[in-house]
Design goal:
Strand content: 15-25%
Helix content: 40-55%
Structural class: alpha+beta
Distance between the termini: 44 Å
Strand order of the largest sheet: 1-2-3-4-5
Amino acid sequence: MSLGYALRRIVEEYPLARLDPPAGHPLAAVIRKGAPDELRRALAGIDGPFLVKGSPGRGTRWAAVPWLAAFDPAITTSATRGYYLVYLFPAHRERVHLSLAQGTVAAIREHGPHAGDYLRASGDALRERLGDFADRLPVRAIALGSAGALPEGYEGAHILGLSYDLADLGDERRLIADLAAGVAAYRALRARGGLAVG
């Protein structure tokens, strides 16, 4: 397997996989183990250490938006808080987004129905701090095609990144170079004050 192959499998197989329970499903195993293993391998040649996790959902329910994330343990070990690099798989399954993102659940808990507004305003300020990455990570907004607090929170939490069509996932060299740019932005954000704005 390769990172691109793992990402492509999730994009292509997720809509049909959701018709069956996730327990014991081969694609759930790819998201939890196979894809994280490939992302770990890709990151090993770039920088580290990272904690890598993939989530197809919880318990007996598939996620509306599955994800594959890399966390710097000095910043966060969870997608709920802090900031991290994440591949997000939209509900319409036409694309994959590589996103430098803010933790969503903590913002929802703290700001309730205004979490999206808070995350978008914070993202605007953080993008300014990372202006030197605008050419390498030009996507400023993402659409995930799902309603609900988490998918909408993920959209609002996006700081900057890239989007890939299926055809793009065959270029492993490009995926690794883009991942390296994402890691560089992640490290730069930490060096420039993290999520502190104002």
